[in-house]
């Protein structure tokens, strides 16, 4: 198969992948493209730099095809949305646990949260007086730290 044909197939698959998630944010689409490229690179590495259509298909949509098969050969919008939402929230939960989990045991405790808060507070309390003053907040801090106004919550 010619290189131009391979590229055309890759772009068709990319367009299909992006089209099926048109409702997603641009960031999600960019992550999908990155994931697609990673899957294709891995498949090609495993196959000495080339892949067949079947290998391409397996690399691209194995999880989606499994979901269709697990749901009797058809997947509704609601079923797909539920699966995507669950996967998104699981990724978010893993990031939060990784950020706070001080023992590395994959769980989140009140002590983990308090420990993280103490670290962030210490970073913000630049003069080490036990208080955070407005002047110690990062520039634009009210936007970065979740507040919508100048008052500290």
Characterize the structure shown.
Residues 1-24 form the signal peptide. Residues 45-66 form the EF-hand domain. Keywords: Signal. GO terms for molecular function: calcium ion binding. The protein is mainly α. It has a domain at 1-75. Helix 2 packs across helix 3 (53-70). It is 65% helix and 0% strand. The chain has helices at residues 3-20, 26-46, 53-70, 77-100, 110-124, 141-144. It is elongated, with a radius of gyration of 23 Å. It has six helices and no strands.
In brief:
The chain has 153 residues and is mostly helical.
The largest sheet is: none
Shape, per Cα inertia axes = elongated
Helix content: 55-70%
> In angstroms, what separates the terminal alpha carbons?
62 Å
Number of strands: 0
User: Given the structure, what is the number of helices?
Assistant: 6
Overall pLDDT level: 78
* Unreliable parts: 145-153
Structural class: mainly alpha
The helix/strand order is HHHHHH
- Proportion of residues in extended strands: under 5%
Instruction: Output the radius of gyration.
Output: 23 Å
Keywords: Signal
Domain EF-hand: 45-66
Region (Disordered): 131-153
Organism: Mesorhizobium helmanticense
Map the helices and strands:
Blueprint: H1 3-20, H2 26-46, H3 53-70, H4 77-100, H5 110-124, H6 141-144
Helix pairs in contact: 2-3
Pick out its properties.
elongated, disordered C terminus, signal
